[in-house]
Amino acid sequence: MHVTSMSVRNRRWLSCLLVSAALLAAGCASEKVPAKDLGTEIDDVAATLIQQPLLHSTSIGVVYRGKEFIRHRGDMETGKPGLPTDATLYEIGSLSKTLAGTLMANAVLEHKVSLDDDVRQYLQGDYPNLQYKGEPIRIRHLLSHTSGLPNMLPERANTVLADFTDHRTPGELNAIYAHYGKADFFKDLHAVEIGRAPGKDYAYSSAGTELTAHILETVYKRDYASLLRGYLGDSAAMTGLRLTLSDDEALRLAVGYHSDNPVPTTPMPQLPWGASGNVKATVPEMVKYLRFQLANGPVVKESHRPLVKFDSEFSIGYFWNIVAGDQLKGVYYAHHGGVPRSQCYIYIVPKYDLGIFVITNQSGDQTARAMQTAIDTLVEKIAEREAAANAEAYR
After folding, report:
1. CA angle centred on 326, ends 321 and 328, rounded to 5°
2. pTM (2 decimals)?
3. Which residues form the signal peptide (predicted)?
4. Do 345 and 356 touch, CB atoms closer than 8 A?
5. Topology of domain 2-393, per CATH?
């Protein structure tokens, strides 16, 4: 969804904020040891987050130096007491892309594909349009959002998303994707026009992630859902990931709200492969993902490798945003996810052996910034703990 690119657009604003926060943390950390345990502080951050306008509830998962913390706050439905729980299934939106990136990193290491492969070698039929002046779209361009493909296919979905907060948006998306399958995607892919050389300019593309899933299906000769469950089940013990839900599982799907609409809205419609935004997971499953990322095995390390460096502070790996030059966080890896009734963030911060997953069951134009503030607060508190522990060690 389009809201994922907020993390890129807000990057410089965040850098200024975080430098100030880092200086404050450094000045305060040596004066006192944090009074509260970290679990309580995470709970406090969750409580503060849902005080923001329109936010109903939140769940936060943290892995910090091997310790796990999960906190839930708020009521899922307005006027109906009821916390989210460890069993609640959430739509993680475009965080799904990092899972696709992980599978592609594994495929690269297994020599199933090369980053420089022309994507057309994995397509049936002719696609003379998927190039610009002889330069083809390559797999690395899909992963780094530099392919020149549109955000969504069909193109009319982008018109709907241009006014994301309009109350009609969820229903219009449902109508577009109600009978939109893989054959429709390929038909629309034939009509795409590439207006610039691939590999240079950032242009967020969920269509590129869907094409990535097709390539993975082609080389492994398995459907994407089974590839996802198989690899992450074996490598990260993530056995509960779902692209589609059974009737029983659907009962555990988080209720969610779009924009300022007081009436709960419908789930994200199913995309042809679902790789760009259809994964559902519980918070404990996402905590397993944080552990998997922090372990930094060969596949994770490959997925975090910069494929395109846009400037000294911002790069893209295998769908991961890579941010450098942050005094407080150091180099970190992040992604935002958003669907019409849920938004979330994942942050991997190696400097503190820290992973954070935050999700809300509301999706509006201020939701991402509210979650970023919550994450910044958590990182500040952990930085204070680290500084205090280091000061104590040298006494």
Report:
1. 120
2. 0.91
3. 1-31
4. yes
5. Beta-lactamase (3.40.710)
For residues 391 and 30, the answer to whether their CB atoms sit within 8 Å is: yes
| Percentage above 70 pLDDT, the chain | 91
Positive/negative CA dihedral, 219, 290, 377, 310: negative
CA–CA separation, 302 and 297 (whole Å): 9
Joined together, the tokens standing for residue 225 give: 């859902």
8 Å CB contact between 184 and 125 = no
Residue in the block written with tokens 């610009």? 132
Six-digit token pair at 224? Answer: 């994407």
Q: Which two tokens stand for residue 299?
A: 């596949």
**Cα 240-101-126 angle, rounded to 5 deg:** 115
Give residue 138's identity as a one-letter amino acid code. Answer: R
Alpha carbon 366 to its chain's center: 17
The set of residues, in sequence order, having a beta carbon less than 8 Å from that of 48 and lying 6+ positions away, is 374, 377
Residue 133 predicted with pLDDT over 60: yes
Q: What is the CA radius of gyration of the chain?
A: 21
Q: Is 89 helix (H, G, I), strand (E, B) or coil?
A: strand
In the block, tokens 């918070």 appear at: 283
d(CA 395, CA 20): 27
**Residue keyed to tokens 């994922």:** 4
**Mean predicted confidence (pLDDT) in 333-355:** 97
pLDDT tens per residue, range 77-115 = 988 999 999 999 999 999 999 999 999 999 999 999 999
For the record, the structure tokens of 67 come out as: 């310790």
Q: Concatenated DSSP letters for 181-225?
A: -HHHHHHHHHT----S-TTTS----HHHHHHHHHHHHHHHTS-HH
Write the single-letter amino acid at 211: L
pLDDT at 390: 82
Query: What is the rounded CA–CA span in Å between residue 307 and residue 319?
Result: 9
Asked if 360 and 57 touch (Cβ cutoff 8 Å), the reply is yes
345 DSSP 8-state letter: E
Kindly state the tokens that stand for 78: 């307005």
Q: How far is CA 207 from CA 154, 210, 238, 370, in A?
A: 9, 5, 25, 28
Question: What is the identity of the amino acid at 31?
Answer: E
